[in-house]
Amino acid sequence: MDKALFEFLCRMGDNTLVLGHRVSEWCGHAPVLEEDIALANMSLDLIGQTQLWLGLAGEIEGKGRSADDFAYLRDAFDFRNLLLVEQPNGDFGKTLMRQFLFDGFQSVMLEQLAISKNERVREIAQKVAKEVSYHLERSSDLVVRLGDGSQESHQRMQAALEDLWPYVGEMFLDEAEDAVLADAGIAPQPSSLKTAWDELMLPLLGKACLEVPESGYFQKGGKRGTHSEHLGFILAEMQFLQRAYPGATW
Amino acid sequence: MKKEWPLWEVFIRGQHGLAHRHVGSLHAPDAEVALKSARDVYTRRNEGLSIWVVQANDITASSPSEKGPLFDPSQDKVYRHPTFFPMPEELKGL
Fold it and tell me: Which of A93, A156, B44, B86 has a 20 to 30 Å separation from A33 between CA atoms?
């Protein structure tokens, strides 16, 4: 049980860690000042969530590893994040679409975790749900505005959706541990979230005048540690300091 | 088409019972976005309970050059200040 819970917590924490790092890459580069600050806020929210999930993962594992140890001292094959969150930022539209697709997933996942039978998981879920609900409100508002905006903004959002669509399926892919956690009432089977995600997201994409790609094919592997080449570059930047100067602190 | 988004002035109320105070401004395409941006730009350090945004164009301001006629006449009317009433001892901090 602990093994399964540990895997699950790593998935949750690695998703927010890698996405948080990706979003932080916009700092100082966003199209307008207001958006720059909003993205930095969101990135910090995600890193904060990472500390909660990976912190708990360390406690469950019981080997004295901290959230920082997980973030800075593991190699790519130990990361359990979705391939979606490690995809490059692209243009602002693609960053926004990636955020939107992920916010929807977090939203339906946290709804279930907020009634988890594990008290610690429940507490974290209830705390971060507020942040995520704001993230989704923001990203969906912008996706609708840009999707249903000018001809160029529409084209960019449609292209972003098509680029990222092959990474959506992995969200709902069940791994062996998921059945154990679902039986114990700790976390839902990812496949069980698909309907709620569709009900939440498809109307918004419709409102944004975006066409959902038909293809059912999707990329997978992130949850098992098989990543795209992008993750290695992210880790190289994120981990450089701790690797070069082990134990360095502020 | 104008490229710049309009300017919005942001007012935040820090605590229940206090008035909204002007904290700064930002650019946004409409009121809804202005409100969201204000949340992100001006309430990062737990400053706010309530936000108002007003498009800067909608504010009518007095002109600095009229400062004399507008405000000077009130300078020599000390009798308008309630300083001529004896206050009870028990009243502190007024």
Answer: A156
